[in-house]
Amino acid sequence: MKRESHGPDLILFLVTVALLSIGVIMVFSSSSIKALEELGDPYYYLKRQLFFAMLGIVAMIVVMNIDYKTYARWTVPFLVVSLVLLIMVPFIGAEISGSRRWLNLGLFNLQPSELGKLAMILFVANWVVKVKGRIQNFFVLLVPLLVMGVFFALIMMEPDLGTAATLAATTLIMLFASGAKIGHFFLLAIPAVPAFIALVLAEPYRLRRLMAFRDPWSDPLGAGFHIIQSLLALGSGGLFGLGLGRSRQKFWYLPEQHTDFIFAILGEELGFIGTFLVLVLFLLFAWRGLRIAMTAPDLFSSILSVGITAQIVLQAVVNIGVVSGTLPITGITLPLISYGGSSLLITLSAVGVLLNISRQRTFAK
Amino acid sequence: MAERNTLVVRKRIAGIFFGALGVFFCLFCRIFIVQVISADQYQQKALNQRMRPVMIDAKRGTIYDRNGKKLAISVNTDALYAVPREIENPKELAKQLAPIIDLEEGEIFKKLTRKSSGEWLKRKLTVEQSRKIKELNAKGLSLVPRPQRFYPEGKLAAHVLGIAGVDNQGLEGLELQYDRYLKGVQGKITAERDATGREIPGGIRSYVPPEDGADLVLTIDSVIQHIAERELDRAMAETGSRQGMALIMDPNTGEILAMAIRPTFDPNNYSQYPQENRKNILVTDLYEPGSTFKIFTSAAALEEGIVKPQTQFYDPGHIVVSGHRLRCWRAGGHGSQTFTEAVENSCNPVFAQLGMDLGPERFHKYLQAFGFGQKTGIDFPGEAQGTLASPSREAQGWLVRWANIGFGQGVSVTPIQLLTAAAAIANGGKLVKPYLVREIRKDKEVIKKFQPEVVREVLSESTAKQLRQILRSVVENGSGSRADLPGYSIGGKTGTGQIAEGGGYSSTKVNASFLGFGPSETPKLLGLVVLREPQTAITYGGTLAAPPLARILADSFAHLGVAPQLEKKEEEDSLVTVPNVRNYPPGEAQQLLLSQGLTFQLEGAGKMVTEQNPKPGVRVKKGTKVIIYCGRAELDNKGDGLVTVPPLEKMTVRDVANTLSLLGLKLEIEGSGIAVRQAPAAGQRVKPGTTVRVFFELPVREGRES
Known about the structure:
The complex is a heterodimer.
Chain A: H1 10-39, H2 44-64, H3 69-92, E1 94-96, E2 99-104, E3 109-110, H4 112-131, H5 138-156, H6 161-177, H7 182-202, H8 204-210, H9 225-237, H10 262-294, H11 299-323, H12 341-359
Antiparallel strand pairs in A: 1-2, 2-3
Helix pairs in contact in A: 1-2, 1-10, 2-12, 3-4, 4-5, 4-6, 4-11, 5-6, 6-11, 7-8, 9-10, 10-11, 11-12
Chain B: H1 7-37, H2 39-50, E1 51-56, E2 63-64, E3 70-82, H3 90-101, H4 105-112, E4 119-125, H5 127-136, E5 141-150, H6 158-161, H7 173-177, H8 179-182, E6 187-192, E7 205-208, E8 215-218, H9 222-239, E9 243-250, E10 255-262, H10 281-284, H11 294-303, E11 312-315, E12 318-321, E13 324-327, E14 335-338, H12 339-345, H13 348-369, H14 398-406, H15 415-426, E15 430-432, E16 437-442, E17 445-449, E18 454-457, H16 461-477, E19 491-501, E20 504-518, E21 525-532, H17 541-544, H18 546-560, H19 570-573, E22 575-577, H20 586-595, E23 599-603, E24 609-613, E25 619-621, E26 625-630, H21 632-635, E27 643-644, H22 653-663, E28 666-671, E29 674-679, E30 685-686, E31 691-697
Parallel strand pairs in B: 2-8, 23-26, 28-31
Antiparallel strand pairs in B: 1-6, 2-3, 3-4, 3-5, 6-7, 8-16, 9-10, 9-21, 11-14, 12-13, 15-18, 16-17, 19-20, 20-21, 22-25, 24-26, 27-30, 29-31
């Protein structure tokens, strides 16, 4: 088959830049009060986010020009480095609000789970190519699932349910795309059910806390607090929003206003129009990402594209689900929009990989 | 490695995309519900959580007397507020504060270290205290101006005004009765606040100003109130009574002009007084009226034509009712007498006879018409109703009961009830409703005006007049003679009611009372003085309660500009009785002398008048100079270091003790009652510290009283 070189997927590029821009603006708007109060500089988070956004775009463009095939060779070393870093986290990680997720690298904090997600995606894509048709064998399918289990367990130890769950879901979506038997997935679900029940029985508070999102007003100052404040922000925005910079909930009512709950502030300031736009942009992202996967030159790049797209879009869906009170609370950021340096760098690099694959597509649109 | 992805893979990817579409659709719907459909509800909740109002106290209304004198005002005083978590050194601060705010150091420390957002340490600080606290410059302390009730006249009319609490809420008295008007409406500042309570810059702000309370204008005349309290104080000192009360009313309108009770309290520091001192017993407490009640037996009998003033009676000293012997208070009885004389004599058998002649039905009808057994409806909280026996002829001993009621036993009344009933006689037959508030004003505008209210007609004009003449005669010729004032025609009735105790009557505890009015032709003032459990040898109402009421009425007439009615003989008119000013502060003594038309010469610089010349009770020409001596040092200023023994005859134990202690002399008491002899004799000069033996004797029981 003939392989041509094209320009990268322009829509994906523009969607990414649009989300990034909205993010920078919203990081400033949501964090300025906090930054002024706590650090004496209202621009503190804006400056850092802007710096990492620039750096991220540079990284994206660089990666866009690196042939994706190069990565296949780095699969195993990358996997090992990620695992080692993840194992190190509980010992030397920086503790932030009850969880150890970060390694302090001086300039910025690195979240090894972010690297882990990419390593896992790369591993699955590479493994799918290696096993080819044998993926339909249940025991062959267990291999990537076991690796995933290790990552899942390590990330859960931090604890970081949101990241662990998206990592698992991403893996399953990739295996599904690769042609694994659908029946096998159901087979896998069978041991999951008693495991889940056992977890709940062991610590009943987990379920209560998990389900607080169903009726946050039953515990407005405890488990329901974040959800309530988030809903109040979204609802206050109404159709058109209070106007950029005019959020009231950011005045200490809504915690994590520039990270996990930035979407709520966005909804308060820009209204349903704003949240609708962001949803549409992520849907476009899903469409272009999966389209790249469809037209990818080979199975490796195709599954890799599915993985990267799934990872970013899933994380967005979970975050928006949490903020809108649809899903239980899991501390997870909104990709490309929430404040966070290492996360931005990694996400933009991953988009760079997608763009590189799009340049090598095999048939025209 | 370069193979194309298979059809299966592409189908699966397409499937994933449709799955994503489904998930996004759900999110769209959810967000649409939150942001558009339920937006109002969330907006309201968010607003409520940000808009936290701060209440502003309204200024409590002022209470004025009928002439515009302020009796209760609201002033902003600083209150000391502490925020415990901001205080750096609570131990040291407590030590510094203790002497300033006059609280225990330990108590302050406890409050300063309490786990709370704030503590009130002390309210109503003086300017001086505020200044000292400011000088401490301590972190975590703040002075908050708060409107506080202040009673500028102190104890004056304390029982009428009642008290208001620290949060400006009426607790007792008129403060409670009219709290609705006085308290006003709190204002509030509403501002958008962040989660930590600070105002959000550029946020919504609203200010609802507080609405100040309305002002009360009382029927009380503070001058008459003052006179009543002064005379009551004096009567209390002279008789050693457990309690005393004076009530003055305008009988034509029902307006209460004075309400005085002893012992009393200062509403500015009410917590420092026993709680029972605060009770307005003129309205809330029942007592047995005794002979004063004979007024109403007389009224019913006169109106029914059973008696006329000239009707002849014979009192053998007792009356037999259903086999019971009811004795007259005077052994041997009053013999032959007219009805007028029977009232003057307060002759019990006559009134027992009238009670029976009237019969339960008729008698009860009149008493009910006079308002007995019912509340008067005075605008004061906690009024008692009193008891009035039912007119039934069924109950055992009904005849004895109604014979007893005829002379004032077996009924219980409140003083206000008794006086209100008497007003009907003073004003020509109308039962009026007593009241304490004339007007309610808001921003100087009258918003409510209380008019005199006639409840019903009780007596004919002519009967009322007849009865007034009889009661005038009681003062002129009878048991109330000590209320006779030169120039003014006072009418009234004495009463000595035994205090019911444990089912029977106490033999020693009595209520001495006098109910009087004047001028007797067209009464302007009606009053009642009740002294409870006087400690003097003679406990007759005519002896103890008549003089203070007479003095109250006389001074009040002078204040109101009521001219003397009686055209006494020229020489008599120019004579006045020298009042007793001993043991009075010189200022008050001077006033008293001037009010009697006398002049004075002050000797000495002591705090009390220790002696006077001429002596009390002497009739002298108007304008006579009375020399008043103040204090010990001056009396002794003859260089020999000796003091003169004063004359002590006819003084009570209490007065003797006071007089001697002022001179530095010791007292040895012999006997009890009124001083009759002393050793050394008056006028002798002795060393300070010398013991004076004084012989007291119980006076022979004389007088004419029930």
